[in-house]
Amino acid sequence: MTQSFDLSGKVALVTGANTGIGQGIALALAGAGADIAAAGRSPADETVGKVRALGRRGENFAADLSSVAAVQPLVDAVLAAFGRIDIVVNNAGIIRRADAVDFTEEDWDAVMDTNLKTLFFLCQAAGKHMIARGSGKIINIASMLTFQGGIRVPSYTASKSGVGGLTKLLANEWAAKGINVNAIAPGYIATNNTAALQADETRNRQIMERIPAGRWGDPADIGGAAVFLASRASDYVQGHILAVDGGWLAR
Ligand code: NAP
Fold it and tell me: Which of 74, 129, 173, 212 is 20 to 30 A from 43 via CA?
């Protein structure tokens, strides 16, 4: 059975792999045998070093994913270096917090551009390559706010709800072409993205009390779901949004 989860010989493009959930996913995929193309605006030197220490190939690819202009050059560069892309993890994302009545157009556009627009066009660019080869695995990083409304994060909620919809749309169009498109919805994971919440004593306590597992998640907690959705074990899983949330949604 473990062979179904083996990623040996596979090439995974992971965005935002220098830190947080992206780093956790990159290391889990490498641990299962994949080579890693780490894409982002900050070099993922630590991640690449750890991937190489696992005996896999790891390379950095500079890409500012706030603009769609970065997408095709990134895919071209990864294909030139590795010759193939078997797995794409659309992880790079940002959040902006303000009351809905004060929320600015700049905060709307910045979050929607990175979290949703670039994600779609990276799916499209990698998807063309995967369709031509008749196989591929795309994993989009969604959120609890793919299912819930949240508070003070209107563009984040809109973007992550959009990620859920796009994941299903792409699965509908590409499942018969040998591509699996799925999403992971992390719960509350201790990263830079949630540093403000962790530092806010009241919010931190409220969040902890509501998580059945009784703790914040660690980026490594997302790794198993990523390996599953990247591997043959998930060949008949399509358009699914897999919550890895310590039970948050069950509450
Ligand atoms: P993080 O530590 O802030 O990591 C975000 C990653 O995205 C970083 O690598 C960041 O690069 C990269 N990124 C942001 N803007 C970029 C851009 N314009 N171009 C290229 N890369 C960019 O946060 P995280 O918690 O690991 O978040 C990863 C994903 O999980 C996001 O999509 C987030 O929405 C999602 N998520 C997180 C949680 C959570 O509880 N933490 C829950 C649900 C979903 P830099 O280091 O250069 O900024």
Answer: 129
What percent of the chain shows pLDDT beyond 70? 100
77-91: pLDDT as tens digits: 999 999 999 999 999
Map out the domains of the chain as residue ranges: 2-191+218-245
The values of phi and psi at residue 163, to 5°, are -60, -40
> Residue 47 — very low, low, confident or very high, per pLDDT cuts 50/70/90?
very high
pLDDT score, position 1: 80
Q: Out of 61, 120, 156, 174, pick the active-site residue.
A: 156
* Distance linking the first and last C-alpha atoms of the chain: 32
| Closest Cα to atom 34 of ligand 1 | 93
pTM, two decimal places: 0.98
Q: If you measure from the C-alpha of residue 3 to the centroid of ligand 1, how many angstroms do you get, rounded to a whole number?
A: 31
Active site residue 188: no
Find out whether 216 and 189 touch, Cβ atoms under 8 Å: yes
- CATH architecture type of domain 2-191+218-245: 3-Layer(aba) Sandwich (3.40)
Q: How far is CA 134 from CA 80, 84, 103, 242, in A?
A: 19, 12, 43, 24
For 238, the token pair is 């399509």
Determine whether the shortest distance from the Cβ of 140 to ligand 1 is under 6 A.
Answer: no
pLDDT at position 109: 99
Question: How much distance in Å is there from the Cα of 105 to the middle of ligand 1?
Answer: 21
> Side by side, which strands form the sheet with 179-186?
58-62, 35-40, 11-15, 87-90, 136-141, 179-186, 241-244
Residue 78 · residue 10 · CB < 8 Å: no
